[in-house]
Amino acid sequence: MSDLFEATAPERDDAEVRRARREHRRARDARRKRRRRRSAVVLFVTVALLAALSVWAVPRVTDLVRGSGGPEDYPGPGSGEAVVVIEEGSTGQDIGTVLHEADVVASVRAFTDAFKENVNAPRIQPGTYALLLQMPARDAVAALLDPANKSEVTITVPEGFHAKQVYERIANVAGIPLEEVQAAAADPAGIGLPAEAGGNPEGWLAAATYSFQPGDDAREILGTMVELTVARLDKRGVPVEERQQVLIEASIVEREVNLPEYYGQVARVIENRITNGGEVAGRLQMDSTVLYGVGKVGGVPTQEDLDNDNPYNTYMHAGLPPTAIGAPGEAAIDAVVDPPPGDWLYFATVNLETGETKFAATLQEHNANVAELRKYMAENPQ
Q1: In the beta sheet, which residues pair with residue 349?
Q2: What are the structural domain ranges in the chain?
Q3: How far apart are CA 71 and CA 78, in angstroms?
Q4: pTM of this structure
Q5: Which residue in 64, 141, 158, 298 has the most C-beta neighbors within 10 A?
């Protein structure tokens, strides 16, 4: 009996061992699966945390690295004022250097980076600008593109302005003492006045709108005006020896009628009268020259004005006056350079409201036009 029991005991032990091993393996596999699942979750969470951390940290690390060698860019918005001059042909690097030296931007690199990012930056114009101190570079680029920040002295010389009026305007707009402007005008060489002007700038100060830099003096301003007149004459092929005559005639055309459509005919009347030795005896008989000779800007000459014997009284003296009587515009110059054909010797504005002007070849025709003017004035008293 004992032998039998002793023979069967190992078999039970082996079965139990095998069962225990199977259960152990199942438990082990289950634990491994759970560990793998936990590892996957931990890995996912770790990656997510690292990604979030990088989004937060990278800009700050970049700023820290950049800041290690000095401020790369100002946070803004800026304060105070800095006046800077951008020269013709300046590159982004050049502009950045100017702004950095003026403490407008923190570094040249910040500006050049902002310059490259702005597609309109190449349109920045030369000139003087009023900017804030310690601006963000991007704001500095935008400010240079805004015309409102450009510090310029804008001077407009209207067509027909006398030289004295030009001097006064320069003094008032540019803040230059009138005496300094007059002194500059009295120095022909200093303002580049050609010899054919005879030392008198009248007519040589081109009618136009100019942009000057703060600090430009009277000599520079007047010189620019003279230079433009020379350029206009050269563009039209006016010989040097004819420049003064063209300007004189054009200035008279400018003052005699208000509508450019009549400029050509008035220019032809001037030419015809100068060369006519009969009916008008070479006299222009122009009110505009008489008024200039007595120091008046406009209006109708009085009998006293007409009796004043001076070189500009073209009722008394034949030919052209000694100088221009104002600043002619380009249209008036064009009319003198190429006047239309015609035999007119007279003209009269018959409607002061519309500026309608009639031209005549004979005194009889002219008197009829004058009668029309008088009728208009009687029907339309001032």
Answers
A1: 357
A2: 1-69, 79-149, 153-235, 254-379
A3: 14
A4: 0.70
A5: 141
